């Protein structure tokens, strides 16, 4: 329960809704208890006057009696209806305040969690499964909402109704009250336990459902592999097995559900029978009137749902507490990469200086960079080459401070990146990642992601510089073409070029390209490099590549091997070293010649 205290700030923010909601609950209950009282009065009136009526021999007197009685009955009928309407109206207002409050809390909590996710560093995302992160912002928040709205609503209603109704019942006859209420706690306990069973089974069903969904999802996206390896049957069987497990669990839940309703009806029935049976004797003994008996039967029915909801509220609160605990644990995590108190806002000129940088990925223990020293002056172009896994991408990640090195310093100009404002640092560097990621949005908006205020002309120019404009204009909707599941399917090379255009439109002084031309053909590559050459004229650029761009005159080329810089210099200097670079160059030259002679 203590975990739910974290919600107090939200209740405070919604205090008027909460106070009004509780007030409406009380008013609605007060109006609802008039009904049994009036029914009692009608019954008592009837039983008192019926004998007298039967003894009347004069038909005109009988007629007058009936007319009087009809008026009384009509009055009671209209009154009962009016009270029921008033009670219903306040019930409506109660839901309008308390349930609306819970929706506001849900909205704020979701936003708080989402904002917190945004602050987390990459390491956090590596250490948590996506499904787990998703379930906190969806399922866990939904469960907390059930507490913040329905549970509070039912609990307040239950408490008030039980207090008022039990008081009225005790006023009539304490012994009958005791007998009538005796099955109700059993009912509450039963609901609580059955609910737990239902919850456990529902969780299992939920897990099986998500398993089925991911199997289906995977086979849709991998359909080409499935078909080309003729694995349709195996894939179908795999799905059938998962579906079978889901079916069995659903049937098991249906059985529990099927038992639940009749068991509840039995308990209610027992209470009503006890009321009539014991109450009947009390009427005969003259302790209560027939009206009291009728009143009691209504009270019992009125108390059913509140007692039933004790069990519901208990399980809702328990689940919400567990969910809020998970949310609190997550909100407590502080990102390792964050603004230091002494963080400065600086305007970068473009110098990059790495001093003895050693970096080990925290969650795998892989040392990706070892004692790396690098000096890049503003405006210089640097190529980073090396075998796969040699640490090239890691170097790029450290420059935009996705991670901090365990040893050494990453400096931009004369500033340690650790002491720069993170947002400001990243806004001054454009980074084209190796794994392209495009959002399900139009092509224009994907490019505009680099500069949300950019005009369409700027978007078109960036696309032209990234050599993708022609491709885009080839789509029927041009720059408005939607990308993603319901949009066009772009080729790997087109995606890479849109991702480059996104980086170009940002137009900062430092650019990092991480192997972002791997999926484009040699001619397009040449075209892009030609465009980039002019674009990067006064910018510092770090270009990570597997291929040597002979067109590009780099000020410096570094070769990484197992996290260390093993070669460093200009093209000519590296060729004379006769090392990895010279070998790669020779291989590439002969490959190019082969493809030319072919
Ligand atoms: N997020 C990560 N978590 C843990 N280890 C990682 C992570 N990224 C890379 N590594 C490891 O760090 C080492 C260097 O990887 P890195 O991606 O920097 O190499 P790379 O030179 O860019 O390779 P490639 O050319 O294949 O992209 C590798 O051994 C890799 O397995």
Describe the secondary structure blueprint for this structure:
Layout: H1 8-13, H2 15-32, H3 34-55, H4 59-119, H5 122-127, H6 130-172, H7 174-181, H8 183-221, H9 223-228, H10 232-284, H11 290-332, E1 352-360, E2 367-376, E3 381-386, H12 392-399, E4 407-412, E5 415-416, H13 422-427, E6 429-432, H14 443-448, H15 456-465, H16 469-474, H17 492-506, E7 510-514, H18 522-535, E8 540-545, E9 556-561, E10 564-569, H19 571-577, H20 580-597
Parallel strand pairs: 3-8, 3-9, 6-7, 7-8
Antiparallel strand pairs: 1-2, 1-4, 4-5, 9-10
Helix pairs in contact: 2-4, 2-6, 3-4, 3-11, 4-6, 6-7, 6-11, 7-10, 8-10, 8-11, 10-11, 15-17, 19-20
The site of adenosine-5'-triphosphate (ATP) has 15 residues, from helix 12.
Domain ABC transporter: 352-587
Subcellular location: Cell membrane
Domain ABC transmembrane type-1: 19-319
**Portion of residues in helices?**
55-70%
CATH-defined architecture of the largest domain: 3-Layer(aba) Sandwich
Radius of gyration, CA atoms, in whole angstroms: 37 Å
Tell me the overall shape. Answer: elongated
Q: Termini, distance in Å?
A: 75 Å
**How many structural domains in the coordinates?**
2
CATH topology of the largest domain: Rossmann fold
Q: Main β-sheet, in a few words?
A: 6 strands, mixed
Average residue-wise pLDDT: 89
Ligand list: adenosine-5'-triphosphate
Count of discrete alpha- or pi-helical segments spanning 4 or more residues: 20
CATH class of the largest domain: Alpha Beta
Which superfamily, in CATH terms, is the homologous superfamily of the largest domain?
P-loop containing nucleotide triphosphate hydrolases
Alpha-beta classification = alpha/beta
Extended strand count:
10
InterPro entries: AAA+_ATPase (IPR003593), ABC1_TM_dom (IPR011527), ABC1_TM_sf (IPR036640), ABC_transporter-like_ATP-bd (IPR003439), ABC_transporter-like_CS (IPR017871), P-loop_NTPase (IPR027417), Type_1_exporter (IPR039421)
Organism: Chitinophaga qingshengii
Keywords: ATP-binding, Membrane, Nucleotide-binding, Transmembrane, Transmembrane helix
GO molecular function, one term: ATP binding
């Amino acid at each position: 329960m203590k975990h739910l205290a974290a919600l107090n700030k939200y209740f405070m923010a919604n205090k008027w809704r909460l106070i009004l909601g509780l007030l409406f609950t009380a008013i609605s209950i007060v109006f609802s208890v008039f009904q049994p009282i009036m029914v009692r009065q009608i019954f008592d009136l009837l039983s008192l006057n019926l004998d007298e009526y039967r003894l009347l021999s004069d038909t005109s007197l009988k007629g007058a009696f009936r007319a009087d009685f009809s008026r009384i009955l009509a009055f009671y009928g209209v009154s009962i209806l009016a009270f029921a309407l008033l009670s219903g109206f306040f019930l409506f207002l109660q839901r309008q305040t308390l349930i609306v409050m819970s929706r506001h809390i849900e909205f704020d909590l979701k936003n708080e969690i989402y904002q917190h996710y945004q602050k987390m560093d990459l390491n956090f995302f590596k250490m948590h499964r996506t499904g787990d992160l998703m379930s906190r912002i969806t399922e866990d928040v939904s469960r907390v909402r059930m507490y913040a709205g329905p549970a509070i609503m039912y609990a307040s209603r239950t408490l008030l109704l039980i207090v008022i109704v039990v008081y009225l019942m005790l006023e009539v006859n304490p012994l009958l009250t005791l007998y009538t209420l005796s099955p109700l706690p059993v009912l509450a306990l039963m609901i609580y336990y059955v609910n737990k069973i239902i919850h456990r089974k529902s969780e299992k069903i939920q897990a099986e459902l998500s398993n089925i969904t991911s199997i289906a999802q995977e086979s849709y996206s991998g359909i080409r592999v499935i078909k080309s390896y003729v694995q349709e049957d195996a894939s179908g069987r795999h799905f059938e097995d998962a579906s079978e497990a889901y079916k069995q669990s659903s049937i098991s839940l249906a059985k529990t559900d099927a038992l639940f309703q009749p068991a509840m009806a039995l308990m209610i029935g027992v209470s009503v029978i006890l009321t009539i049976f014991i109450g009947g004797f009390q009427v005969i003994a003259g302790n209560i009137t027939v009206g009291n008996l009728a009143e009691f039967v209504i009270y019992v029915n009125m108390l059913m749902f509140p007692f039933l909801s004790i069990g519901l509220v208990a399980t809702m609160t328990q689940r919400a507490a567990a969910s809020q605990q998970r949310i609190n644990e997550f909100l407590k995590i502080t990102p390792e990469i964050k603004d230091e108190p002494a963080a400065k806002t600086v305007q970068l000129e473009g110098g990059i200086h790495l001093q003895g940088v050693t970096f080990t990925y925290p969650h795998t223990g892989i040392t990706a960079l070892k004692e790396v020293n690098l000096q890049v002056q503003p405006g210089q172009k640097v190529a980073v080459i090396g075998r796969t896994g040699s640490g090239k991408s890691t170097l790029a990640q450290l420059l935009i401070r996705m991670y901090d090195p365990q040893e050494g310093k990453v400096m931009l100009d004369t500033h340690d990146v650790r002491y720069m404002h993170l947002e400001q640092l990243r806004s001054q560097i454009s980074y084209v990642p190796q794994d392209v990621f495009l959002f399900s949005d139009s092509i224009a908006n994907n490019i505009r992601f680099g500069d949300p205020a950019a005009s369409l002309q700027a978007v078109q120019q960036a696309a032209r510089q990234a050599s993708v404009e022609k491709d885009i204009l080839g789509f029927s909707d041009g720059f408005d073409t939607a990308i993603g599941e319901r949009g066009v399917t772009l080729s790997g090379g087109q995606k890479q070029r849109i991702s480059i255009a996104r980086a170009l439109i940002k137009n900062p002084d430092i650019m990092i390209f991480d192997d972002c031309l791997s999926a484009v053909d040699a001619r397009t590559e040449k075209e892009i490099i030609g465009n980039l050459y002019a674009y990067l004229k006064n910018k510092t650029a770090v270009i990570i590549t597997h291929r040597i761009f002979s067109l590009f005159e780099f000020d410096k080329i570094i070769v990484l091997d197992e996290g260390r810089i093993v070669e460093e210099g200009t093209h000519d200097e590296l060729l004379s070293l006769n090392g990895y670079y010279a070998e790669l160059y020779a291989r590439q030259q002969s490959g190019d010649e082969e493809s030319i002679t072919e």
